[in-house]
Amino acid sequence: SSSSSKSNKKEDAASCQLETQMPSFNDETNIKITTTYTARSNNTNNNIPPIMRTSNGAPIDSLTNSQSAGPKGPLLLQDHTLLDHLSAFDRERIPERVVHAKGSGAFGYFTVTRTTPISQICRAHMFQSIGRRTPVAARFSTVGGESGSSDTARDPRGFAIKFYTEEGNWDMVGNNTPIFFLRDPLLFPSFIHTQKRNPATHLGDPNMVWDFVSLRPETIHQISFLFSDRGTPNGYRHMNGYSSHAFKNVNEKGEACYVKYHFKTDQGVSNLSAQQASKLSSSDPDYATRDLYNAIANQNYPSWTLYIQIMSLSQSQSFDSSHDPFDLTKVWSHKDYPLHEVGRLVLDTNPMDYFAQVEQLAFSPSHLIPGIEPSPDKMLQARLFSYPDTHRHRLGVNYQQLPVNRPLGVLLSSSKDHHYRRDGNMNVSSNGNGAPNYFPNSFGGAIPDSASNQWHSDTVHGVTGRHDTSVKEKNENENEDGDFAQCRDFFLHVLDEGGRDRLTTNIANHMSNVTSDIVRSRAISIFDRVHPLYGEMVKAKVEEIRRHKASSSDDENGEDGASMISPLNPPRHVPEIHARGGVAVCPFGFGSAKL
To answer: What is the distance between the alpha carbons of residues 140 and 174, in angstroms, rounded to a whole number?
Structure first.
């Protein structure tokens, strides 16, 4: 290019530094989160708007008038501006997440406040010195609802944090509860289907929910959390986050232990009543999204303190066959495994663009760094596969090249690629810069770092096969744990009288919509197995609600609640339509199918 053309290019580019989510490592301990946006203009004055252009960079003469054959004539196929604009619009939506579709995101940093004991049990660089900062991206979400669903629905909440470390990206992909409904991932698709819509009616269906729950008693612990006050948190800032799974931590000596991560909100836990949540669902369905964004915009930055529970390998092997420390439906006792402080998570930056920085933000439990490894938790093992598989479907095989997902530090420290992945749909990288695409090679390609990053080795033995993951309840007086012992403790000792009353009322309000007497009776029996008082309270409230609904059904179409129907226009005679035999009204359930 000539010197004058270079000068013109410089004049056309107006750059501004914006605080955003794309970190760059300026030094070992403190990281500035910045990126550069370039605005194209015919003038260096930033107050003059940039020239509008097509996708191929050509200037646009109009975005209000299509090309046509005369003012009233048909449109012209040659109008690339119109076709370019419409075709982009037609493809704006990508598949939403099957679960966690509705969510909010923000960016910030994590600071280490205590190195003991974390630095003694985990060799990850991010934990080795007090005051060390790591940039983060966070996404909070509901689980079952679609992308446009209410933020205040009774539902678990996703709590996912991406730590941009110099050793790679570490994703802590958890929830706002320390447990989950299941311990075997083979049941996960079926469970999620019960939380979605009936395939025939396309309605939410209480029959599906309680049929599944009553047939899988391991769900009752999380069900009790869900229908308690915790099921409707007051936005995302006032809830805790948990890894739920145990992870293996490995230190510099190669010694391992198991860890669970707890992010405790510094704003204090706050929950919405069932009435408040229901009102907000209609008046402000984006309540939690708005609350998080406005808090950060007003510099009221939310924060969480990270704690860990630690279990030694010998402790994990000391349990008898009736208890599995990697059972996701159970918690670890805080008395036996106390919390240890690690650091503080602060969110201080809102996304510049939701789609680019939140909708395309891709988390996976398999995104780990040296010193953090998976545990034998069956649910975790399946998620290691399922999350990246979802991202490849939603975002494409090269989703890690998207700016918000791009790993930092050594991975981007030079022009050479540090891997042998090539090509694929929408590859926007340098694709290796002509470096070898095979290993081993003799031409300076990347090599493994097996000396310092070797995984901890496990000894695994057992008979292969499909082992039953259901657990039979033990005698209440025995010191053994089934599906109900921890749930019983939650009901009797964690909740106070008011909490038990609200829990059983919330359950009864939902279960009273079950149309199948068999499903309803079987579901109530599960609560009775947890504790007789639990079952009695649920049963009595369900029966009372159903009696009230039956007595008031005759009035629900009365004059007070009826809407006026206007006369047919134009006036006409509508012949009577005779119903075919054998068709049953089915607001819930699966029609005439027998149980």
So the answer is: 10
* Interior angle at CA 501, CA 496 and CA 504, nearest 5: 120
Residue type, 114: R
- pTM of the shown model: 0.87
Coil, strand, or helix at residue 19?
strand
Token readout for 76 is: 């012209």
**Residue from 3, 4, 11, 60 nearest 40 by CA:** 11
Distance CA 198, CA 177 (A): 26
DSSP character at residue 289? H
C-alpha to C-alpha distance for 560 and 583, rounded to whole angstroms: 31
Structure tokens at 84: 């370019």
| Cα 204 from Cα 463, distance rounded (Å) | 41
Distance CA 288, CA 149 (A): 12
Q: What is the rounded CA–CA span in Å between residue 164 and residue 543? A: 53
Check: CB of residue 236 under 8 Å from CB of residue 270. Answer: no
Rounded-to-integer distance, Cα 118 and Cα 131, Å: 14
CA nearest 541: which of 576, 587, 503, 515? Answer: 503
Cβ-defined contacts of 419-428 (< 8 Å, 24+): 419/446, 420/445, 420/446, 424/396, 424/397, 424/398, 425/396, 425/397, 425/398, 426/396, 426/398, 427/398, 427/401, 428/398, 428/401
Other Cβ atoms within 10 Å of 98 Cβ, number? 13
Instruction: State the Cα–Cα distance between residues 292 and 238, nearest whole angstrom.
Output: 10
SS3 217: helix
More confident residue, 421 or 373: 373
Q: State residue 552's pLDDT score.
A: 80
State the burial class of residue 77 (Cβ atoms within 10 Å of its Cβ: 0-12, 13-18, 19+): exposed
Instruction: Please check whether residue 219 is in contact with residue 213, taking contact to mean a CB–CB distance below 8 angstroms.
Output: yes
**Residue type at 479?**
N
Give the pair of three-digit tokens for residue 226. 């869900």
Phi, psi of 238 (to 5 degrees): -110, 30
Give CA–CA dist 361/97, Å, rounded.
Answer: 11
Q: Convert the pLDDT of each residue in 235-284 to its tens digit.
A: 999 999 999 999 999 999 999 999 999 999 999 999 999 999 999 999 99
Residues taking part in catalysis: 100, 175
pLDDT attached to residue 595: 61
Q: Which of 372, 332, 340 is nearest to 248 (CA)?
A: 372
Burial class (CB in 10 A: 0-12, 13-18, 19+), 382: middle
**Is residue 570 reached through a cis peptide bond, with omega within 30 degrees of 0 on the bond before it?**
yes
Place of tokens 């939410």: 204
Distances (CA, A) of 180 to 105, 231, 328, 468: 23, 13, 6, 18
Q: Interior CA angle at 469 toward 465 and 471, to 5°? A: 140
| CA–CA distance, 135 with 31 (Å, rounded to integer) | 7
CB within 8 Å of 92: residues ≥ 6 apart: none
User: Tokens in use for 595?
Assistant: 């149980």
